[in-house]
Each structure stands twice: as C-alpha cells, then as structure tokens.
C-alpha cells in the first residue's frame, strides 16, 4: 500500500482515528491516537515519540535514559500494515518504525532487526514462510477467575464457555488480516490456543503482534484479561509461542526444506538450517525466554525441551520437524514462551539458521530416546540456559548472534533484564520461593496484564 491508497481507504471508510502503533522490547503494543484529518501530515513527516520507550521496564517504573537518552525518535508508518479495527468505532491502526533526527533507522529496534535478518536470507535466494502458534490465558477482569476451571483439553462444551467472546475473536481477527485456522482450549485453567495461516517475511511477525494485541483488546471488551505471560500459575502448564516456519525460493513456489529423494525427506539445506538453530540455541534462549517468569515454564510437566535436539513429529524436542509433502513440510521451534517478542524470535531463528546454511553445518542425529527420560531433562548435559542470567551470558558469548543483533540492542536489552532481576530479588520472600512452587505474586503483578 501507499500513502495515497491508505488515505483513500480512510476517506471511503469514514475513518476518524488512526492508531500510530509500535512494539516495545517486550512486544507490548504502545501507541498514539491521531485524528484522521492529521494522518497525511503525521505519516509524511513522522511523529515524535520518546525514544525511552525502548529502554523502559514493562511497568514503566525504570527508565534507562542513560542508555539512549530521553529525547524523541521520529516514527514513520509502514503503509502495508494499515488495518481497520472492527471492535472500535471508525478506528484504524498502522505500525511504525523509529528514526533518529538525522534520518537513519534505529538499528536496535526489534522490527528493524527482524527485517535486516530477512534481507540477509533473501540474498541467499531464500524466503521465510512463518506463523507463531500462540497460547494464552483468559481471566475475569474483576475476580481474576479463569474462563474455565478444569483441564478437559479441547472439550466442545468447555470451548463454548463464552460463545460471544469466541465469536468475536474468530470473526474480527479475520477482518484485521489474521486468517484463523482453528481455535481450541488447552489444559490450563482459562487457557486457549488460536492458530492462523502463515505469511512471508516481516508480515509473519506483524501478524503475531496484531494477533496478540487484538486478542487482548477484544477480551477486554468482554470483561476479561487475556494474557500471553509464559507461566502465570505454578499449578498449570505455561503458554508457548511456537515458531512454525518453512523455507521457500524467492518466488514462494518451492519448499526448500523438502527433498523427496532424501531418506527422511529433509533437504540438505533444511539440515543446515536446523543445525544452525540448534548450534545457537543457548544464545537465542535469551530471546525465546526473555523474562524471569519464562524459566518457570520449564519443569517436569513441561512440553519444553531442555536439550538442543530435534525429531520428526516429536513434541518434546526443541525442533519438531513435520514432513507433510512438498507444500506442507515445516519446522516448529518449540522453545519460545508466550511472553516473547515475535520480532525478536523471528530474527533469532533466521540469524541462527543463516549461520547453519553459510557454514554448511551438519545436522546431529535425530532424538530417538524416550522424551520423558532423564537424559532429555538434565540441564547440565545440554548447556541450555535455565535462568535469565544464564541466557544473557550465553547470548553475550555467541559472536554470531551478537553481531546479528548488535551491541546497541544488547546494551538496552541487558539493562531491561537487569532491572527485572533486581526487582524480583528485592520482592517479598513469598514471591520468590522455590520456582516449582512459587506463588507467582510478583510475576503476576509485573507481567500478567500487559504481556
């Protein structure tokens, strides 16, 4: 789309307000609402928004202004992201990217980092088709009571606990470009999962951002809070954001992961790609599990692998390979939690996969052991970080991933995480007990409403 086509749509649909929206480092949507009569001016000349939004904590208590200053960045819209929001009266939304006053893009901005990695992939003649697979919890805004209170997975009656909420989610998501494929309940109390059709390039991450924000807003209109927090309760399974993806040629016609003549139907390129992801999995854990709460998602009853392994249709492996023929073969990275930023998870997978392709890394043997065996559950044997502090150190020690994301990004991200770690350490003792039986009080207050 162009400025002219967006302006024409605004006039034809009688849009009165346009939400200039962006994702912070946590993946939380933030915005300024602009009367439509000022859209052309703001879209053409940019809109000033404080740069410290990229360096402030999730609760906006800690502003790391010494990292980037406290002045404004100038934010410009990507016209291809314009959407009309059917749940608000005569309102549309458009996504932004920031620039310094001198005109260059902020190299540390998550969406820009993701685009930069996709551009690197395109130079190899490869395009990415992807979608995040989100789980989330729904609770009553006032009572905090979950939408459902049992674990009857995919029960039809349970799915229709609130048919009005279900109806609006299924219909309105499609209207904002999220082509829902299915909706189901998960085992957690009040837990749901909605999957949607994949998209090429940066649209995959844009769709994830729009999806999460839309679900939260629609739930709010029905008196609920929808939370993508990775582990909101000690007693129930956490929420993931599995990254399902495949590699295609530049025209998007041929699936480059699939080779009909290979023993397991995985192409040589696909093997390199998966090897790169596994090689760098310790480093990118920081982005797949970016909050202190994310690591409570790991545990005895977790579907998260603690090993850098892969398997064909094995849910307990880090990478689950699905062989579904020339059109349907894809890789599911199962490491990312619901509280992750989709731009950063996409960028991490692409950066790691590219390194595998460029260095022609051999793919390790498929995991064949019992997924419940101690071998797969022993964090000392596989080197994957089990705390946020360990993940930060692994990221910092990986030259390939550090170069892909840049020193400025790491400086900001590290300062945000340092605040989190300090805050949880200073929380009341009841909120920082044994991770397996923590009452999650601090986590709930910090993450539940906005993630």
Features:
alpha+beta; 17 helices; 451 residues; 6-stranded mixed β-sheet; 9-stranded mixed β-sheet
In short:
With 451 residues, the protein is an alpha+beta fold. It is built from 17 helices and 15 strands.
Report on this structure.
The longest helix has 19 residues, at 203-221. Helix 9 runs antiparallel to helix 11 (342-358). Strands 7, 8, 9, 10, 11, 12, 13, 14 and 15 form a nine-stranded mixed β-sheet that branches. Strands 1, 2, 3, 4, 5 and 6 form a six-stranded mixed β-sheet that branches. The chain has 17 helices and 15 strands. A hairpin with a 5-residue loop joins strand 1 (17-23) and strand 2. The chain has helices at residues 3-12, 39-45, 65-68, 110-123, 156-159, 163-175, 203-221, 268-279, 281-288, 325-328, 342-358, 374-377, 379-382, 388-397, 399-405, 407-425, 441-448; strands spanning 17-23, 29-35, 47-50, 72-77, 83-85, 91-99, 126-140, 180-185, 191-196, 199-200, 224-227, 241-249, 310-312, 319-322, 330-333. Residues 374-381 have low confidence and may be disordered. The protein is α+β, with helices and mostly antiparallel strands and 451 residues long.
- Oligomeric composition of the shown chains: single chain
The largest sheet, given as strand count, sense and whether it forms a barrel, is:
9 strands, mixed
How many beta strands in the DSSP annotation?
15
Shape field: globular
Judged by helices, strands and strand pairing, the structural class is alpha+beta
Q: Helix coverage percent of residues?
A: 25-40%
Rg over CA atoms: 21 Å
What's the number of helices?
Answer: 17
Note the beta-strand portion: 15-25%
Q: How confident is the prediction overall: mean pLDDT?
A: 91
